[in-house]
Amino acid sequence: MERSKDKLPLWNDVEAIGEGQLKRAIECLLFVSDKPLSLNELKEVLEANGELIKGLIGELISEYDERSGLAIVEVAGGYQMVTRPEYAFYVSRLRQPRRIRLSRASLETLAIIAYRQPITHPEIEHIRGVDSSGCIARLLELGLIKVVGRKESPGRPYLYATTERFLETFGLKDLSQLPPIEQWHERALKMGIEEDKDNGDMGA
Q: What DSSP state is assigned to residue 1?
């Protein structure tokens, strides 16, 4: 059956279109996306084999490492095009990066959740020794944590865990890349978290 002219080309027919064209298409998608693109998303858009896409992304990563101020990184379960940290000074002079403002209490609460997830509200408060309701609410509002279920214990409290936005914010491929806990605060400030020293969180 003849393929309609208004439809996408058959990317699976690599011999017909060439791997070079497919690689350039991947490059375009990474450039225009404002979030990491998963392999499944790329497969769906490109109608191409996942292993082929993964291999071409590997080639792009190497090419960018050799010649560009941009980089393609694997983060939050997907791939994203970013500027290199060593050029952050110049980029910031043109465009101020968006920073997330968190109180020290919220930053501490986020660390507990990140390193001990899934974890309940009472367990967080037991570790911190103070009411953490305001901190948890703030982190939920920012999309850095989410509810992932309930613990089978009296009262069946909610279980909290970090989100893909958390991974993206901290530049992590997955949770196995979390830095040692003693480096947490320094890493947070480097990756776009601004410590709000003037305002705490209610219930923190």
A: -
Distances in whole angstroms, Cα of residue 197 to Cα of each of 132, 173, 183: 17, 29, 19
What is each CA distance from 153 to 66, 89, 123, 147, in whole angstroms? Answer: 54, 50, 12, 16
CATH 3.90.550.10 fits domain 14-94 = no
Kindly list the domain boundaries of the chain, sorted by start residue. 14-94, 100-195
**Are the C-beta atoms of 76 and 168 separated by less than 8 Å?**
yes
Quote the CA–CA distance of 53 and 12 in Å, as a whole number.
11
Reduced DSSP (H G I as helix, E B as strand, rest coil) percent helix, strand, coil of the chain, to 5: 50, 15, 35
Answer whether the bond into residue 154 is a cis peptide, omega within 30°: no
Give the pLDDT score at 83: 85
Question: pTM value?
Answer: 0.64
Q: Which amino acid, residue 196?
A: D
Q: How far apart are CA 173 and CA 75, in angstroms?
A: 4
pLDDT tens, residue by residue, 129-165: 999 999 999 899 888 999 999 998 888 999 999 998 8
